[in-house]
Amino acid sequence: MRNIRKRLFALASVLHPIRLPNRILNRNGEILLHVGDIPIWDFPRMMRLIKKIRPEILVHTGDMVDNLKVSRKPEEVPAYKKYAKKLIKHIEKYATETYIVPGNNDLEDFLAESVTKTRIIPANTCIEIRGLPCLLCHRVLDIDGEAKFYFYGHGPTGDTHSFSENGKYYSNVFFAPAVLFPDSEEMIQLAGFKRRNFKK
After folding, report:
1. Overall number of domains in the chain
2. 52-85: per-residue pLDDT in tens?
3. Which residue of 7, 95, 98, 191 could cross-link 118, Cys pair, CB 3.0 to 4.6 Å?
4. From CA 135, how far away is CA 192, in angstroms rounded?
């Protein structure tokens, strides 16, 4: 079973080549990468994305191992711990500054014990990243505050926002990861990673 899983992971990496916009490849200044809600079968691609971008700042908005529902399936806790630890180690290796907002299917105490330089941020927290007001959350329905950049995931439920509206940006990682260039305050979705059609 393990060999089949490994082969599927390798196949996923081959089938999903990482193509990034020139704006990212020819970087001039820092990059913030927003990821989250990553199921095991998407780990190879997301880990390659993180390694390729090597962001100065990485924001993960919860559900470290999205397909393992540890909040209601205790038997999945050992697998969750294994994969969450692997992802945290990878994130901390390739990103300089990291933030994690635990999701409904995360073990917050375990995450706190597993990180070395990552900040664990409570949901619906507004923080300044490079002087920019950013609200970090897991679910859009929990957002209660004002910011210029909103980072969240969890799924489409209740999300009525366009990616950019009224001078604000709403990055729902369920639809696609996003990159923010703090110097220019420009934010883009990584189109090749879209999971669903997203209202523009």
Report:
1. 1
2. 999 999 999 999 999 999 889 999 999 999 999 9
3. 98
4. 25
